[in-house]
Structure formats: structure tokens, C-alpha cells
Design goal:
The complex is a heterodimer of chains A (284) and B (267). Chain A contains eleven helices and ten strands. Chain A has 284 residues and is α/β, with parallel strands linked by helices. In chain A, helix 4 packs parallel to helix 6 and helix 7 runs parallel beside helix 8. The radius of gyration of chain A is 20 Å and the shape is globular. Chain B is mainly alpha-helical. Chain B is 87% helix and 0% strand. Chain B is built from ten helices and no strands. Chain B is globular, with a radius of gyration of 22 Å. Chain B starts with a helix and ends in a 6-residue tail after the last helix. The mean pLDDT of chain B is 93. The chains are: A alpha/beta (284), B mainly alpha (267). Chains A and B meet through helix 3, strand 6 and helix 4 of A and helix 6 of B.
Chain lengths: 284, 267
């Protein structure tokens, strides 16, 4: 288990690290009009062909990082490179071209509710290609078959369970054979069977399609089973990182609290407040 | 203590003013962006036709039934007033001019804002809340071109058609009450109407009004939906704002347009 600095330092020395598909380099970010810093000098590398997890509590800046990689928000400072190319919001055409090479699975699928399962998966293909309808049909069925839902093609999103919706969204995310797939809380709210299915799909699709995966989650147990590398994020900073073996053997207090599910520790149980004596003394 | 209250009040006023100016600026930029995406909406004719169906065809029942009843009530009240001056055969003129110039575009606009405008806002707001717009953006598909522009054009095209149907059903309602129920001569009813209603001055001006109202309601509806806070309460507030802002805009625009269009009235 290592300290937070190494990947960032590597990215700083050589911003075109060929091993990494995505290089996040000293990124600082806060939402416009808010004094709160969401990401504070964060540096990470996401290796090509690897499944990397970003773990951390709610509100630690994990999802924001995915959005920054997709160029949804402008960075405060620092840089993000995707396949060696700077993610730059000031050039919309280049940004859209870059986005065509990545797929994202949103927390609850974000399926288009006015389209069927088939049409949802066909959506990116129809938007970005001029393929004949027969080929679109076959491509969509292949993607749905890969997630085990070929038979559900005619269903509406409202007829799907949470796990099925996540799988359809995954089929849609890989519809254009992207280089990178980002998963935002793919395990949230799933029953154990669906959770295992989605976890295995992430790993198998990553290896079979030769893509790179970034999984943002707070599910440590599922992550340890499927990922190659883990970053722990708390209050906008990387507090620990390592392979699943490193995490299991770690004595780092934050990692231990996260792995063991302790209510109090480096992440405190209480929201910051005045001292008890100052609050309760007022009644005396 | 007093200076603190004054400072607080000034700060609140300043904050609200800045927010309003920022919102107006954003609305202006948004409107320009929607217009800039118009060619995209026309290229995606299938999507625009679908929105015409949702905004126009599905609003037909409320528009037709309202038009019929408004025309029937107008005939009853108009007959009562005209009889006092012995001009009850002018009922056709009264009803037709009222509907074509004012009531058709205005009432149809108000109904359109409540029925279709609120639905457009709620739909776009919910798409934002459930991250469908974000998903589209991440798929390199511009939501302004795919979601907003077709809905805007669907509204703009539907509104004049609905206003025309409202006026038509209103005149038919007046015919049922005036001619069939009260017994005014059918020839006088239709003949006076035909002689008094001018195509360019009355009908075209009425159509222009309904097009302007369609643009206003559709822009407000898509803007409020796109700008809604992504929560249940945010979508609910945005829907309410659409109905209130659209209704007030229609009434204010109607006054301004009437001043310019019908100068002979006396202004």
C-alpha cells in the first residue's frame, strides 16, 4: 500500500505516460460559485486494459472526477489527458470526438425512458454512424447478448429491474466499442445476484473487448474481486492506493476503516460541530 | 445592530438582482442556442413530427371542447347584449372577430401553456433529474439538438394550428346556440360574418399572434425544463414557473401586438 504521491509524480514528469489511457495530473476543481474544493490536487493514472476502482464515501468527489474526464466541467487547474490528448472544453468538436471513444454507465442507468431497450442500445450507433438498419439490428443484439438481455429487447425501461437496467446501460455504453468505459456506482442498490452479475460483466467485457475500465464505487468487497488497482479518495484527495492484495494487507487507518466498515475513524462519525460542553452548557 | 440589518438587506437585494440578471442572460443565450440548433431540428424531422403529435395532437381534446364552449357562451352573452340595440343579426360578426382576433390565440395559448408547456418542462426536467441529458452529452450527442430543438419546433408549429381549430370550433359553437337554439337567421349569421371579417387584417393578424405565443410558450417551457434543479421539487417548481410565465407573457404580448396590429381601435 503506497502513499498518495507516486502516480501523480509520474504523470508530472512524463505527461504522456504510454502505459496509461487516462492521466489525471494535479487536478483542482470546485463548482462555480461554491467555495468548496471538490478535488484538491488529485493525480491518477488509469492503465490501458486495466480495471481501476476509485473508492470513497459519498461526496468525496469520485463522480465529479468521471465527469471531468468526460469534459463535462472545466478544470480549476491541472490537466487530464485521454489517450495522450488533452481533455479541453474550449474546443467542442474535439471534445465530442473524444467522447465518442468513451462510454459511461450512470448510477441508475440513465436509460431513455421514451425508447425501448433495443432503441436505447441502438441510440449511439444511429447518432454516430450511417450503418444500414440490418447491421444496426445485428450489432444491438450482439451487445445485448453480451450482457445476457437479448430476450429483453422489446421491453421498456420501466419494465426492467435495477440490475437489468444497469446491464442495458452497459450494453449501450459499449455499443460503439469505446476505449474507456466509466462506471458510476454500478453496484448501488442491487441484490446480491445482480451485483455479482454486474461485477463479472465489468471484468469480462473489459478483458474480452480490450477496453479500460474505471469503476467509481463504495462497494469494497465487490471491487476487490474484479479490479486491478484501487484509489481511495476522501475529501477530494487521494488518501491511499494499491492493488487488491495491498488493500487486504494494509494497516492504513483509512483503508482499515473502509474495509472493516468502522463507523468512526479517519472519517469521523460526527459532522463537524462545536464541542459538546459548549452546546449543552447553554441549558444550564 | 441596525447597520447589520441594512447591510443584510442590501446584500439580499444585490444577490437577487445579480441572480435575476444572470438568469436573464442565461435565458437569452439559451434562446439563441436553441435557434442556432433549428437546422438540426429540421434535419431530424421524425423527432419534430413526434413532438408535434405530443404537443399538438394530444392537446386537441382540451382545445376543441374549450373552443366549442367558449363559442357557445359568447353567443349567449353576445345575443343578450346585441338584442338591446336591435343588432342581434350581427352576432356572427361579434363572435368571429372576438375569436379570430383575440380569444382564439389567447385562450388557446393559455390552454397550450397549461397542457403542452407544462408537459414539455416536466419531461425535460425529469430527463435532467434521471441523468438522461448527461448520458446524452457523454455519448457526444448534444441535448439541445436532440431534445430541446425538436420540442421547441413541435410547439411553434402546433400552436397556430390549435388556435385556428379553437376559433373554428368556437364559431361552430356560436352557430349552434345562435342559429339552431335561439333562431337567428342562418344567412344573416354567416353572411354578415363573411362581409365583416377581413382575411389579412383579422385572420392573418390572429395567426401572427398565435405564432408569437407559440414561440414564447415553447421557449419558456424548454428553458424551464433544461434549467430545472434536478430534484422532484425542482421539476415541480419549473413546471409551475412555465405555466405562470407563459400565461403572463401571452397576456402582455397580446396587448403589445394588439396595439400594433389594430391601430384603428383607438390607441
Amino acid at each position: 500500500m503506497s502513499t498518495p504521491s507516486p502516480p501523480g509524480a509520474a504523470a508530472q514528469d512524463d505527461a504522456r505516460n504510454p502505459e496509461a489511457l487516462v492521466e489525471v495530473d494535479h487536478v483542482v476543481f470546485g463548482y462555480e460559485g461554491s467555495p468548496r474544493i471538490i478535488l484538491d490536487d488529485v493525480s491518477m493514472d488509469f492503465g490501458r486494459g486495466k480495471v481501476t476502482a476509485i473508492l470513497g464515501g459519498s461526496g468525496s468527489g469520485k463522480t465529479t472526477l468521471l465527469r471531468l474526464i468526460g469534459g463535462v466541467h472545466a478544470l480549476g487547474s491541472g490537466s487530464i489527458r485521454f489517450d495522450g490528448e488533452l481533455v479541453d472544453r474550449s474546443d467542442p468538436e474535439r471534445l465530442f470526438a473524444l467522447r465518442r471513444r468513451l462510454g459511461m454507465l450512470f448510477q441508475f442507468g440513465a436509460l431513455f425512458t421514451d425508447l425501448s431497450v433495443f432503441e436505447n442500445v441502438a441510440f449511439p450507433i444511429r447518432e454516430h454512424t450511417e450503418l444500414p438498419e440490418d447491421l444496426v439490428h445485428d450489432l444491438v443484439l450482439m451487445k445485448l447478448n453480451a450482457v445476457g438481455l437479448r430476450g429483453a429487447r422489446s421491453l421498456a425501461p420501466s419494465e426492467l429491474s435495477g440490475g437489468m437496467a444497469r446491464r442495458v446501460a452497459l450494453a449501450r455504453a459499449i455499443a460503439l466499442d469505446p476505449m474507456l468505459v466509466m462506471y458510476d456506482e454500478p453496484f448501488a442498490g442491487l441484490d446480491p445476484i445482480s451485483l455479482g452479475v454486474v461485477g463479472q460483466l465489468i471484468r469480462k467485457l473489459n478483458d474480452a473487448l480490450g477496453i479500460t475500465s474505471v469503476v467509481v464505487t463504495h462497494d469494497i468487497y465487490e471491487s476487490l474481486k474484479i479490479v486491478d488497482y484501487i484509489y481511495f479518495v476522501a475529501e477530494g484527495r487521494i488518501v491511499a492506493q494499491g492493488t487488491p492484495e495491498d488493500v487486504r494487507a494494509s494497516t492504513d487507518p483509512f483503508v482499515r476503516q473502509f474495509v472493516d466498515g468502522e463507523p468512526d475513524g479517519p472519517v469521523p462519525f460526527h459532522y463537524p460541530a462545536k464541542a459538546l460542553s459548549r452546546e449543552f452548557a447553554r441549558a444550564i | 445592530m441596525r447597520s447589520e440589518v441594512v447591510t443584510w438587506a442590501l446584500r439580499r437585494i444585490g444577490e437577487r438582482t445579480l441572480n435575476s440578471v444572470e438568469r436573464m442572460g442565461f435565458a437569452a443565450r439559451f434562446s439563441l442556442a436553441v435557434l442556432a440548433h433549428s437546422p438540426a431540428a429540421l434535419r431530424r424531422l421524425q423527432l419534430t413530427l413526434r413532438e408535434i403529435y405530443f404537443a399538438g395532437v394530444l392537446s386537441l381534446v382540451i382545445i376543441l371542447v374549450s373552443g366549442l364552449f367558449v363559442g357557445m357562451v359568447l353567443a349567449l352573452q353576445g345575443y343578450d347584449a346585441l338584442t338591446r340595440y336591435g343588432a342581434n343579426e350581427s352576432l356572427g360578426i361579434l363572435v368571429a372577430l372576438s375569436l379570430v382576433r383575440e380569444l382564439g390565440p389567447v385562450v388557446a395559448g393559455l390552454l397550450f401553456a397549461s397542457r403542452a408547456g407544462s408537459a414539455i418542462t416536466a419531461e425535460i426536467g425529469l430527463m435532467k433529474t434521471t441523468e438522461q441529458l448527461s448520458a446524452m452529452e457523454m455519448m457526444a450527442v448534444d441535448p439541445l439538438a436532440r431534445v430541446v430543438a425538436p420540442r421547441f419546433f413541435g410547439g411553434v408549429v402546433s400552436m397556430p394550428l390549435l388556435a385556428a381549430l379553437f376559433s373554428t370550433l368556437g364559431i361552430f359553437g356560436a352557430y349552434l346556440v345562435g342559429v339552431r337554439l335561439i333562431g337567428i337567421d342562418a344567412g344573416a349569421f354567416w353572411g354578415n360574418m363573411q362581409a365583416a371579417v377581413d382575411f389579412r387584417y383579422d385572420i392573418v393578424n390572429g395567426i401572427v399572434k398565435s405564432v408569437v405565443f407559440g414561440i414564447a410558450v415553447s421557449l419558456i417551457a424548454v428553458f424551464e425544463g433544461y434549467n430545472a434543479r434536478p430534484t422532484a421539487e425542482g421539476v415541480s417548481s419549473a413546471t409551475t414557473r412555465t405555466v405562470v410565465a407563459s400565461s403572463l407573457s401571452i397576456l402582455a404580448l397580446d396587448f403589445v401586438l394588439t396595439v400594433f396590429m389594430f391601430r384603428g381601435i383607438g390607441v
